[in-house]
Amino acid sequence: MKHEGIIMHKSTTGTLLPGYLSALLLVMVACSAVAGPEEEDAPTASPSGRAMQAQVYSDMEADDPWLEIGQEHLFGQIWTRPGLTIKERRLISLSIASAMGSRLGFAAHLRGALESGDLTEDELWEWLIHFTQYAGYPKAAPVWSEYRMLLAERGSMPLPAMGVDQDRLEKASPR
After folding, report:
1. Which mean pLDDT values do the consecutive 10-residue runs of the chain (175 residues) have?
2. Residues 99 and 151 in one domain
3. What residue numbers bound the domain in which 104 lies?
4. Are residues 58 and 98 located together in one domain of the fold?
C-alpha cells in the first residue's frame, strides 16, 4: 500500500507503518531472538573496541561512560567485522553522517580519515564531489566548509576571504 510516496505495510494491530520501519522492527526482533539471553557480567568496553575507536576517531576521548557502550558494540564488533575494509567503512560512515547533517560526525570522520591515513586529501575531494551530486549542495556545503578548514589547518589550501573562523585556525596552527 502506498501513502504519499512511502510504501506502507499493515502491522499485526492493523495500523499502517512505513516500509522501512517495518523492516527495522523485523530486524530488531530477529536480532534479539538470535542474540539469546543477556549476560549480566559482560564487560563494557573491550580492548579491541577501544583500539578501533582510537583508529577511527583519532582525537576522541575513550574514557567517557556513554561512549564505552559504543566502543564495545560499534567499534569492537561492527568496525572489526570481515567483509569491508576500514576505508570502505569510513566512506559509508562519512556519507551517512554528512547526509544526516551531523557536523560532529562528519567533522570527526574527515579528520580521522586524514590522520589515520584511511583516505588521502585527493580521495576525500573526489568523495565530496560524488557526495555533492547525490546529496545536493545544501547538504554538501557544510561538509565542504569543514573540510576546507581542515585543509587550511594542514597547510594544504588557503582559506577564502570570508566565512573564516580565525580563532579555530589560530588554535590549530603549529606555533
Report:
1. 45 44 40 41 56 70 73 85 94 96 94 94 97 96 94 86 62 57
2. yes
3. 84-158
4. no
